[in-house]
Design brief:
Blueprint: H1 2-25, E1 50-54, H2 58-63, H3 65-72, E2 79-84, H4 87-95, E3 101-105, H5 111-121, E4 125-129, H6 135-143, E5 148-153, H7 157-164, H8 167-174, E6 179-182, H9 185-193, E7 199-201, H10 211-225, H11 238-255
Parallel strand pairs: 1-2, 1-4, 2-3, 4-5, 5-6, 6-7
Length: 257
């Protein structure tokens, strides 16, 4: 099955220039960074320990922002590599003023391109977010003895059924994951059936909020109410709300607001 998968990827690779040209025309690709998808880096690798995170798009990358803020402060980490598949996700990362973070587009899952990518970046650990599972990349990370962790793992019923159509091949992929941190309990069950090891229910990272987001939210709230007369009725009961509504009306009338 691996041979068939690699053959299909190679066929896609032949037609990829046409696909990418169409995407450039639709403004879904950055013409200056297309080379990254073929394993050519646009950013230099710094000396020292590098941690790599991969997420498909905006939602996946936003979910790890609180984690990135913590890792930015670590003296043990020289660089954090972020890869994604979409143009919009690259713009999201640039909005955060991270000093250690470098963004690249995820390479096509061709065996030779993947080898080139890993040999250049040499990550100390790799984190795949949500449901991003790429066979050639995972097999090559295992060959290079690089820990590969699935975080915020999520497998839907439909995707589980698709994986199970190629059960042996799927198990050979998932068994190569070092640790799986699941976002929900149903995914824990699916991961076990797919041959994954070291599975932990961790909860959904998307509910976490970064320090930067908290500061921005607080500023926005303060600015919104800055020039407004504001009052608050909290912990009210059903019988009190009619009275509060009447009071609000009287205050509005009296203060002429």
């Amino acid at each position: 099955m691996l041979f068939i998968y690699r053959l299909l990827i190679n066929i896609i690779l032949i037609f990829s220039p046409i696909i990418i040209l169409i995407r450039i025309f639709k403004k879904k690709e950055n013409i200056l960074r297309v080379k990254e998808k073929f394993g050519f880096n646009s950013v230099k690798r710094k000396k020292g320990r590098l941690i790599w995170f991969h997420g498909a798009s905006v939602g996946e990358l936003q979910s790890i922002v609180p984690l990135l803020e913590k890792l930015e402060k670590s003296k043990k980490i020289s660089q954090i590599l972020i890869t994604s598949n979409t143009l919009s996700s690259s713009k999201i990362i640039s909005n955060f003023k991270f000093k250690k973070v470098a963004h690249q587009f995820f390479p096509i899952d061709n065996n030779e391109i993947v080898k080139k990518f890993i040999n250049y970046w040499k990550p100390s650990a790799t984190f795949f977010i949500d449901s991003e599972i790429w066979p050639n990349m995972i097999f090559n990370l295992k060959l290079n003895r690089i820990p590969t962790i699935l975080i915020n793992g999520r497998i839907t019923e439909n995707s589980f059924k698709r994986w199970m159509k190629f059960e042996n091949f799927s198990k050979s992929i998932f068994s190569n994951l070092t640790v799986c941190l699941s976002s929900n309990k149903k995914t824990v069950s699916y991961l076990k059936k797919l041959g994954a090891k070291n599975i932990k229910y961790f909860g959904n990272l998307k509910y976490a909020q970064s320090e930067n987001e908290k500061v921005i939210l607080e500023k926005n709230v303060i600015n919104f109410f800055k020039k407004r007369i504001t009052w608050c009725a909290s912990s009210t009961h059903n019988t009190e709300e009619i009275f509060i509504g009447n009071l609000h009306y009287q205050l509005k009338k009296k203060l002429k607001i």
